[in-house]
Amino acid sequence: MIKSLLQKEWLEQRWKIAFATVILAGYTTISLRARIMPDDQIYYMGIIFSSVLLPIFASMSIVATERANRTFNTLIALPVSPKKIIAAKLIISSLIILIPILISAILSLIIAGNREVSYYAFIYALFLTISFSLTFFLWSTVFNIRQPTEARAAIIAVAVLIIIIFIIMSAEFYFKIYGGPVKWYHTFHPFIYVMFMLKISHSLLNDRILATLIQLIIAFALITTITIRFSRLTRGKS
Amino acid sequence: MKSIIALTWKEYRQIRWFLIIGLAIFLIFPLYEDIDSYIHGYKHSYQMSAIMAVFFGGIFTIFVAVAITTADLRTKLDTFWLSRPINPLKLLTIKYIIGLTTTLLVISLPIIIQICFLRVSDFTVKPLYNNTFTLITIYSTAFIIGCLARKPVYATMLAVAAALLIYFLPVLIPPLRFLCPSEILLNDSFGIAYVISETLHGRTFYRNLFLDNQFYPYSFHHLLNIPFTTLTIYFTTNWLIYVALALASCPIAIFLSALTIRRNYRVNLNQKSILWSLGIIALLLWSTVAYQLGSNLTCLRRIPFGDEYYIDPLAVSPEKIAEAEKKHQSTNKSPGYDNSNGAVFDNQGRITAILVFPPNVWNIYCPPLLSDTGKAYFQYNESNVWSFGDERAQRSTHQFLCSIDLNQLPDPLIRIDAVIPVSVSSCCGNCCSSMPLLTEDNTYTYRLPVLWSPNEPENFFCRRLERNTDSTYSLYLCTFAISPDTARPTIINKLDITPYIEPSFQHNPPQITQGYKTKYSSAQEIISSSYRIFIYNKLIYMHYGDKYLAIDITSPAQPELVTAYNYRHSANFSETETYLPRFGLGLENFTLEDDINIAINFGFSSWPPESFDGTHLVKADRQGISVYEISQITDSHVTFTKVAHHSITPLESLLGTRISNIFLRNNQIYVSRGGSITVFDISDLPKIKKVGHYSSPNHIYNIAPMPDGNILAKTRHDFQIIAPPPSATTGHTSVQK
């Protein structure tokens, strides 16, 4: 049954994957071929696009599309557990993030591999981009999974981003003045991968591994929350 | 009347959350900046509100316009509203006004608050009278789209696509540049209003209205006691067209929206078609940008020299690359102090010699001289005590020359060959380059480069300005001879070149010094930079004002003026600055109020850059490059006529800084600007054709032609050797006398 669910989601979402891939790959190819900017700046812009827009794009259509098209009740009436439904949705929605990023990365390596940015730096940035995108995707989904329309879901995702940035800025501001366990705080917040990329925090490898493990635990907690919220939605609880 | 009030109240109730949340967002970030600056005592200009307005104003405007239209036009609701006894035109007009007021309030209020209570920069003020009208256009467009699409998400996406076109189409299509938001925002010539400064010799010079939070008319009237009648406020034509089009969009939007509702026009869109349209528009715009700015020149080789080096002017010979090099700030010195060394690279990028200068040295920004005899000459300064703002500190600066024999490089490659003090002047901190103080012998000594001919290394030449007893100034070309015993220079000849030059004086209108409320006006003499004076074949060529001087130095003790070339052009004139001719400066003829203290500062400028190949003179200005051709030669004059001009595109203007360096070779102009090099072909004048472009990963500080035809570019981290366009041929064009 899960295979059928995955196929259904794939058929519904594939145009979004194609769209995101064409845009991201098109941007990367045009920029790297024309050498319109230094390679690292092209990658940075691609990373911003991948890390911010793709998660919003992916999270807005998990349940909201079903509710807007009035197919949600039909879906939950199927003899499948809500966990399997949401798992299928999360897997295919993750592909909206993963496939465009990976295809763009392959094109980038073919066009400009090791040209100005080393293979190591490129793959490291790719890993961090994917990690952050998926993390932000989960954070957005936790809050917008119950929204009835895609517009509201997208607005909630943007609001989540703004609130996270605001909390981080306030915390940084607080720690700058009063001091505190900055490293531990960094370990927990969703922008840790961005901080890795910008080399702001966690210079030691062990610290980075620890932070990644904690983020994995947080991701597991987020997925559990999403599943619970979705299950409650299927039972008609607000 | 009642219905208008009722509708207004209804629209306000519908949109109030946008007002509250919008104000919260647009006020929080400026507030954060204000508190952060207050706590840390930063004294910079506040501009966060302007940044928010410029970067997020557009998207907020779209949200408001779409929300206010689609709220009542969604399925079923539109039928309800059309059944009411209300004219749709009235309803839409009120909707339009309430939405626009909300938008402008949210975006402008934080800016107005920062302007009223804090020190702000020009950038903070400009969005009020420039960006606002772009937002009105976007609002009108989004309003129509909202009425047509009637679904919030689709209308938003379509409006974003339209806003992208409004923002970027004028950037990409040069004829539409007067509608370009970035050009309007950043370019002074598109400003709202100017106040006349002076009318001199039939030419009017303008000054921008705003400066550092000081409203000029207020400053003139209240603090300088100048009546308002002497001021005239101008609106540039481009700005008026831009504003008229923006304002015209308001009634058009209302009319079209009403028509849409009456006739029940609607665009049936789905998510897929909207997103694909948006994506294709974005890709098309990006492709156009790539076409305009993409590189077609290739970098043949990179010569990295490490992060610890900072390379300044460079000179190129067939086998050597010489440059003055400045190391990073050392930790045990006073703030602002750098250790300087001179280094010589070979063409493979290896450092072949390092000149360790004495302590307390900072280099002068002058290309080193590579002689045919294998010597390299460096010029640098030494400051005995380097202390910013400390009046008690001893202040003296020495200029030095040193040379190194490239054919006999020592091992381990560290050497000081000669240290020759040139002159002593009193100076204060980093203002030395622009504001030298009067020395004891009433002589202004500049940190101008000396001229040192490779063939006559025992003599060198330096310009020197002296104040005469009648408070006038004279400029001399001094010949120095170096004593072989003491290595100290003595002046053996002074050639007065004052009668042959007519330097420009830049006049700055009265300004109010922050905190002190003092009034002053200043005039600054623009003196040729080091890049405009050179020795070639026993002749010194000197560019001064609108003249070139040629001085024969066959006999160094008796230099002789051969000729003075005169050329006419407009490149020296800037739209926002006033220049007074030397003889009009007169402290006696100064036309401003008597109680204004006049300070005369002397400085030199290395900008705008220019290049001359014997036939064509290429000169850069803020708008682009101009090509001048010798049209007439007499015994005493050469007249240059402007034959072509190439304006930089709005996109280049948006992305790059001003032109930093330029050279002309084989009818091709090589221009470095920001992180790019552009090559223009001028073989078919007056057409200037772009034939090559190179985008560097790093900012390009300098470019130089290499003997093999390639281009040497210097960035912060490396040398880059770039292949010229295929049409270029190798070899130098000799300078014609």
Distinctive features:
A: 238 residues, mainly alpha, B: 737 residues, alpha+beta, 38 strands, disordered C terminus
Most extensive protein-chain contact, per-chain counts? A-B, 27 and 28 residues
Termini Cα gap of chain B: 83 Å
- Structural class computed from helices and strand pairing of chain B: alpha+beta
Low-confidence runs of at least 5 consecutive residues of chain A: none
**What is the oligomeric state here?**
heterodimer
Strand content bin of chain B: 25-35%
3D structure, described in words:
The complex is a heterodimer of chains A (238) and B (737). By secondary structure, chain A is mainly α. Chain A has helices spanning 2-34, 39-59, 64-68, 72-77, 82-112, 119-144, 150-178, 182-188, 192-198, 205-234. In chain A, helix 6 crosses helix 7 (150-178). Chain A starts with a helix and ends with a helix. Chain B is built from 13 helices and 38 strands. In chain B, the strands form 10 sheets. In chain B, strands 11, 12, 13, 14 and 15 form a 5-stranded antiparallel beta sheet that branches. In chain B, strand 23 (539-544) and strand 24 (547-552) form a beta hairpin. In chain B, helix 1 runs antiparallel to helix 2, helix 6 (131-149) packs across helix 7 and helix 6 runs parallel beside helix 10 (237-263). The longest helix of chain B is centred in the first third of the chain and has 39 residues, at 2-40. Chain B is elongated. Chain B starts with a helix and ends in a 15-residue tail after the last strand. The A-B interface holds A 15-16, 19, 22-23, 26-27, 30-31, 33-40, 116, 149-151, 154, 162, 166, 169, 173, 177 and B 25, 28, 32, 36, 39, 152-153, 156, 271-272, 275-276, 279, 282-283, 286-287, 289-291, 293-295, 675, 695-698.
